[in-house]
Amino acid sequence: MLEAYFEPLAAELVRAQNASPGHDYLGSLAGAYTTDRTFPSFEGARIALIGVGEERGSVSNAGCGAGPDAIREKFYRLRKHQQPLPFIDLGNLRLGKRLGDTYAAIATVVNELLREHIIPVILGGSQDLTYGHYGGYKLSEQIINIAALDARFDLGVPEDPTNSETYLGKIILEQPNYLFNFSNLGYQSYFTGAESVSLMKKLHFETYRLGQVQSDIQEAEPIVRNADLLTVDLTVVRQSDAPGNANASPNGLYGEELCQILMYAGLSDKLSGIGLYEYNPAYDRHGQSSQLYAHALWYFMEGVGMRKNDLPLSNTGHYITYRVALEEIGQEITFIKSTKSERWWMKLPTDGARNRYLSQHLLPCSYRDYQQACSNEVPERWWNAVHKMV
């Protein structure tokens, strides 16, 4: 029973703002585990909020363990969506005696929620908790893709302990490994260095500089649509929009851009988990950063409620297929366009692909990728994915 993993929330945290006529705040919707309520039932829920006030893996951001309830305080003051989405709040995870125990507990909880087809939303805490979130998929031996909104890559070196700046390197090196693709959006070169960028290219992972993301925010949509898990470090947002982090810097995404990308993530039929990390109330101004994370979560839930269920797996009634022959590679690429959502996919060749990667044969893309192929240019995301298939 998962109840043993959690501590209940203070009742006033969820319902203090719901006394106005109409009861149209999110707090009135939540099936929350509070001091005056029993542990919520999973029945009918599509999203489960999980607070994890763990900061032992934090690097230079002590105090981020206080983040979950500060985010909730702002989130439950927001109004309901036009089409309310059933969600539950499991409360705050009991932290383990060791950091590794917390990771293991997160993995167990996430795995159980995934089995129930409920999307876990982790409110951190430090970003190394992504390692535990990944562990939930690992328990089911599921090959996944991870996307990160982060100013850095968090690779570290093999000898370093697992923390908020090394968790990705630990995931990459683990054996057996269940990570197929990693995408980073919004990195800043002066925080990463040329060697890290070169390593990412050798691994055929996708990296997008801050300027690339901001030049056309819509191109972020297929990147997060290809992810099973999205992890967000608040430092991806500029300090003026999100001061609540000891490592905040002047450059980064605008607050509305973060919300737009979280909306894209919610719309993805594939994405099954997110984590919002590194918010530190000690550095915030007037609750500005907690409000931003609350708004981003609101938009994520808005997207989930608007999902089209249009993954082109078997039903071909709402799709148009285009085949483009490319001289450079001596073969054609098949593109699929949904007439329900106007979204695009590319088919990857399965000949020679390892059996464990066959589930990755449909690659989300954009109209720009199709245009590239029509100009006899191989789309980079197609090229990277093919190299990982073999």
Description:
With 390 residues, the protein is of the alpha/beta class. The protein folds into two domains: 2-305, 3-Layer(aba) Sandwich (Arginase, Chain A), CATH 3.40.800; 319-389, no CATH class. The chain has 13 helices and 14 strands. Strands 1, 2, 3, 4, 5, 6, 7, 8, 9 and 10 form a ten-stranded mixed sheet that branches. α10 (255-267) links the parallel β9 and β10. The model has no long low-confidence stretch (mean pLDDT 93).
Keywords:
390 residues; alpha/beta; Arginase, Chain A; four-stranded antiparallel sheet; 13 helices
Topology:
Elements (H helix, E strand, L loop, with lengths): L5 E2 L3 H5 L15 E2 L14 E6 L14 H9 L11 E7 L5 H17 L3 E6 L4 H10 L5 E6 L17 H7 L5 E9 L1 H4 L1 H9 L3 E4 H6 L4 H6 L3 E5 L21 H13 L5 E5 L10 H18 L13 E8 L4 E8 L5 E4 L14 E4 L1 H8 L5 H10 L1
Parallel strand pairs: 2-4, 3-4, 3-5, 5-10, 6-7, 6-9, 7-8, 9-10
Antiparallel strand pairs: 1-4, 11-12, 12-13, 13-14
The CATH C-level name of the largest domain is: Alpha Beta
Percent of residues in β-strands = 15-25%
Shape: globular
H-E order:
EHEEHEHEHEHEHHEHHEHEHEEEEHH
For the record, give the distance between the C-alpha atoms at the N and C termini, rounded to a whole number.
Answer: 41 Å
Radius of gyration: 21 Å
Largest sheet: 10 strands, mixed
Number of domains: 2
Full CATH superfamily name of the largest domain: Ureohydrolase domain
* Strand runs, count: 14
Mean pLDDT: 93
Q: Which class do the helix and strand fractions yield? A: alpha/beta
Judging by the overall fold, what is the CATH architecture of the largest domain?
A: 3-Layer(aba) Sandwich
Q: What share of residues is helical? A: 25-40%
Uncertain stretches of 5 or more adjacent residues? none
Task: State the CATH topology of the largest domain.
Answer: Arginase, Chain A
Number of H/I helices: 13
